[in-house]
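Bug #77: duplicate submission created two jobs. Keeping one. Sequence:
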Amino acid sequence: METQLIMLSEKIQFMYIKNNKLKQLITILVLLCPMLLLGQVKHEAKVNLLTRPDGYKLAYEFIPKKKLGFELGIGYLFEDTGLLSIDPEPVTFSFVDTEVIIFYLETKYYFLSKESEKIGEGFWGGLYTYHEIETYRDPNYSSKFQEINNTQYREKPYRRLDFGISTGYKFILKKHFIIEPTSGLSVDISDYTSSKHKDFASPTFTGMFFLNIGYRF
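Kept job's structure:
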């Protein structure tokens, strides 16, 4: 038995030396394990109840300290995108089906006193970035665009990148269950616009309101 253990140990050491990727992975795990094992670290899985019926949004929050949280979210929307004629007269409008995937990353600061024993709950403020990427567009999009604008369709796939500020309040029920109303305001900083005309390229501000429920573990 002892001989087998020695052989196994030598094999693991050989793999560690030979495989540089394995060395990097082990190093990362060694650095992360102490942080993940700290008593204050919390993890949360959430879903947004106020997402439209034709979409969804899921999120994960990592709380390494009682006043600090990092949230990563993903969502998917099935939208009816409006096409508006470029020329002022006559104004024509049409809808086409599109699908958009959403990614966002948010940093939160919880306003807790030093004496508080709470961890990542109560009132908070934060900053976030929000990215939308079009994954599907109605095959008739091009023909409809050309029909209402009488010009050749050359528009790029829809992308949007926002930066914003947010705030909310997190309720923790029975140490695990989460109710979290959230609001925010962001500005679109992407180069994409619905038209190639510079008149339509002014910054777009978007307000949002979420109601997240989730579980802390």
